């Protein structure tokens, strides 16, 4: 996995989630449960401490991406 993107918009999907051979408006996606290390809480705490929000909310997706990069 090279990147985590929750609820991508259509432009992102067209650039990153389409594979040759698929119909033009079909895209790849993942549905899953997460098994995380305890380090996720360090990333969550940093977001809260720095008041880092997206659309007014603290985002787990951002922390998942940081965890992916560090581990």
List strands and helices in order, with pairings:
Elements: H1 10-16, H2 40-49, H3 60-70
Q: Give helix and strand order, one letter per element, not per position.
A: HHH
Oligomer: single chain
* Cα gyration radius (Å): 15 Å
Shape: elongated
Mean pLDDT: 89
Percent in helix: 25-40%
Q: Please count the helical segments.
A: 3
Which stretches of 5+ consecutive residues score pLDDT under 50?
none
Name the beta content range. Answer: under 5%
How would a textbook summarize the main sheet? none
Structural class category: mainly alpha
Number of separate structural domains: 2
Number of strands: 0
The CA-CA distance between the termini, in Å, is: 12 Å
Provide structural commentary.
The structure is a single chain. This protein has 71 residues and is an all-alpha fold. The protein has two domains: 1-32, no CATH class; 34-71, no CATH class. Helix content is 39%, strand content 0%. It has three helices and no strands. It is elongated, with a radius of gyration of 15 Å. The mean pLDDT is 89.
């Amino acid at each position: 996995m090279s990147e985590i993107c929750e609820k991508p918009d259509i432009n992102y999907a067209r650039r990153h989630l389409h594979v040759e051979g698929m119909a033009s408006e079909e895209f790849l996606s993942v549905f899953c449960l997460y098994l995380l290390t305890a380090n996720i809480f360090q990333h969550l705490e940093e977001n809260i401490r720095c008041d880092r929000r997206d659309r007014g909310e603290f985002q787990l997706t951002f922390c998942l991406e940081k965890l992916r990069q560090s581990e």
